[in-house]
Specification:
Layout lengths: L3 H10 L1 E7 L7 E13 L2 E7 L3 E4 L3 E10 L8 H13 L5 E8 L3 H7 L15 E8 L2 H7 L7 E5 L17
Antiparallel strand pairs: 1-2, 1-5, 2-3, 3-4, 6-7, 6-8
Length: 175
């Protein structure tokens, strides 16, 4: 994650940052925020910003620029409480769509990285053979873009709207 050193620098120097952030394949947006913390949670680095408190996935950051302004925090700001609340919110985040898949055991670690935090515990990492399981995604678009990354190691069982749509010329590779 190329942005992690710059985020750490902003935290240590207590500076605001300008972040170029991409979510769900959308166009990159620029945000100016005050960093509160950066931390790994369930194998993914997250960054919390104060003010209008938001949590950002560090791997979706494309650029971070330090701004020569102090990162002032609201009165009564408590880092430990903010971090605990943000983590709980991530772990209990509502999901919009659940997808049932049959996955080869070798692809389970990759699937675990693709699903959002609230669904990671549904993906076993010690299974053998094929596993059928239901995992959450933020929306249909996220499921449709993530599941093809598993290639022939996974088959979408439901909903059918999440199954990869390959051009007819790719049909011979589908099995």
């Amino acid at each position: 994650m190329p942005c992690l050193p710059d985020l750490a620098d902003a935290l240590w120097r207590d500076r605001r940052v300008r972040v170029r952030y991409v979510r769900d394949g959308r166009t990159a947006t620029r945000k100016i925020t005050r960093s509160a913390w950066c931390s790994p949670a369930t194998g993914i680095w997250w960054r919390c910003a104060t003010g209008r408190r938001r949590t950002y996935r560090v791997s979706r950051m494309r650029a971070v620029d330090l701004i020569d302004e102090p990162a002032t925090h609201p009165p009564g700001f408590d880092l430990a409480v903010t971090r605990a609340e943000s983590r709980r919110a991530l772990e209990h985040e509502a999901v919009a769509v659940e997808v049932t898949v049959r996955v080869a055991a070798a692809a389970l670690p990759r699937l675990r990285r693709l699903v959002p935090v609230p669904g990671k515990d549904r993906v076993p990492v010690t299974a053998t053979g094929e596993v059928e399981l239901t995992v959450p995604f933020e929306n249909l678009g996220c499921a449709r873009s993530a599941l093809p990354c598993l290639g022939s190691a996974a088959k979408v069982l439901a909903p059918s709207s999440c199954a990869p749509r390959w051009p007819p010329s790719y049909a011979r590779y589908a099995h």
